[in-house]
């Protein structure tokens, strides 16, 4: 564990993100004057760095008795937050002798500024220069960002409606060890499923009143694993979606069939009948031992079977998610996964760096085994990028997360014309999203890209009891658009 003391509680997130990236494999704790430190080990620990930010200047001192890095900007009413981040970054960089590929970019949407600049008519060179000189991003990442921004710009130009629709189905066959989503094992919750669908339908009924005659551009049924529902339940839900919304000319209709053990002919037939254009079959890894360890109830052979079945039934846009940094997975294991993926030839591949949030069971395992038990071996991200390119896939969206292994990013790769439109519009926040279901978030993108959110409760029973409150909440957020 590493302790960083800081006088400024309002910069805790940024300091944590920067310091964690400079000390990979270490659990970093930020202690501020507002912290109530109960952990005895943390209390007794000498700070690796002490950051002092006051009105006039900021400084960073590493070992006690050594000269501090001083002369950084102070923080008055109008904060020069970026200047302070750059100063802190430089101090850590000099002290550790390393630089970070993402520099001072600590947010989850690193492409957003590039996309805005592109829309303002700035050139690729200007955009890359800004990322390198102001955000301290390395050349490769700056080029990747620009590349993705260009692709996203093309994708977003297709949008015609003011909104897209998201439906959350919080059931899965089992709970993965790293999961922090709303997810309930279907076996134990089967009796609640029909009641849940009823409530989601009631939520959906309220949405057309917000957007008038506009039909959604895209529909995304995610979760959880929507294909944990029976074929009959899927059919009932999707028939209601067809009745409530005009789904005849969607730009994209995605259903996550994430767990291959839920991919059956009757379910896929229902998806086809309702016009689903894109599905996701997610192996995460093609190594049997890893799949067992992370609590997925399927084998690599199940993934292959699910892919072949979907192909036979005519699905020509299949996404596959994989995760880097899973315990016990080095270069050889990732190479195996990528080779198996290449043989299945998905139209898109989403590559996640493991991010274990506090709610996940794996958090406890990492606490017992050390944060370096989930490292991503050097050269692995490059290997994945190279293999994805070999499969004819180009990067088209990218985001970062808190608690990410190896200061990396999640990247969506896809074949030309097979980009996940919903993924891009959700990440770049260019269109409102009306969402229904437990743990889902509706977003109103207002003038000047002002974002207002309405968050549904995540806990299943609570959602079942309070779904009408969720409807009212969303109405309030979208009130300015309501007819
Ligand atoms: S499939 Fe996804 S939502 Fe379901 S338990 Fe695993 S990580 Fe969670």
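^ Assign residues to that structure.
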């Amino acid at each position: 564990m590493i302790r960083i003391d800081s006088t400024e509680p309002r910069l805790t997130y940024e300091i944590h993100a920067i310091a964690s990236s400079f000390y990979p494999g270490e659990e970093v704790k930020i202690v501020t004057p507002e912290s109530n430190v109960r952990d005895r080990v943390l209390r007794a620990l000498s700070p690796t760095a002490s950051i002092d930010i006051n009105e006039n200047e900021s400084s960073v001192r590493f070992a006690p008795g050594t000269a501090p890095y001083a002369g950084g900007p102070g923080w008055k009413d109008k904060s020069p937050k970026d200047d302070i981040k750059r100063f802190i970054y430089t101090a850590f960089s000099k002290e550790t002798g390393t630089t970070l590929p993402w520099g001072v970019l600590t947010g989850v949407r690193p492409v957003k500024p590039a996309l805005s600049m592109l829309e303002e008519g700035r050139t690729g060179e200007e955009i890359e220069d800004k990322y390198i000189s102001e955000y301290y991003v390395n050349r490769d990442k700056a080029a990747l960002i620009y590349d993705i921004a260009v692709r996203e710009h093309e994708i977003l130009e297709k949008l015609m409606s003011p909104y897209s629709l998201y439906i959350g189905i919080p059931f899965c066959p089992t709970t993965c060890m790293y999961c922090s989503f709303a997810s309930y094992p279907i076996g134990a919750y089967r009796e609640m499923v029909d009641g849940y669908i009823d409530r989601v339908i009631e939520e959906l009924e309220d949405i057309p009143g917000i957007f008038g005659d506009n039909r959604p551009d895209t529909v995304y049924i995610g979760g959880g694993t929507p294909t944990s529902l029976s074929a009959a339940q899927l059919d009932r839900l999707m028939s209601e979606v067809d009745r409530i919304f005009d789904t005849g000319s969607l730009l994209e209709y995605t259903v996550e069939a994430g767990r291959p053990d839920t991919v059956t002919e009757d379910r896929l037939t229902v998806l086809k009948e309702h016009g689903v254009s894109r599905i996701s079959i997610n192996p995460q890894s093609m190594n049997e031992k890893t799949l067992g360890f992370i609590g997925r109830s399927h084998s690599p052979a199940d993934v292959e079977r699910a892919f072949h079945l979907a192909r036979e039934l005519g699905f020509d846009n299949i996404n596959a998610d994989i995760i880097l940094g899973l315990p016990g997975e080095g270069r050889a294991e990732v190479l195996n996964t990528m080779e198996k993926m290449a043989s299945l030839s998905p139209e898109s591949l989403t590559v996640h760096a493991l991010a274990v949030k506090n709610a996940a069971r794996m958090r406890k395992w990492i606490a017992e085994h050390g944060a370096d038990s989930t490292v991503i071996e050097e050269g692995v991200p490059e290997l994945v990028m190279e293999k994805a390119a070999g499969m004819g896939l180009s990067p088209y969206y990218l985001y970062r997360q808190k608690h990410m292994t190896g200061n990396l990013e999640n990247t969506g790769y896809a074949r030309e014309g097979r980009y996940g439109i919903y993924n891009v519009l959700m990440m770049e926040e260019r269109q409102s999203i009306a969402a229904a279901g437990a743990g889902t978030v509706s977003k109103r993108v207002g003038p000047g890209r002002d974002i207002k959110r309405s968050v549904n409760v995540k806990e299943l029973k609570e959602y079942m009891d309070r779904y009408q409150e969720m409807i009212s909440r969303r109405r309030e957020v979208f009130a300015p658009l309501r007819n």
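Residues 163-436 form a domain with the pyruvate-formate lyase- activating enzyme fold (CATH 3.80.30.20).
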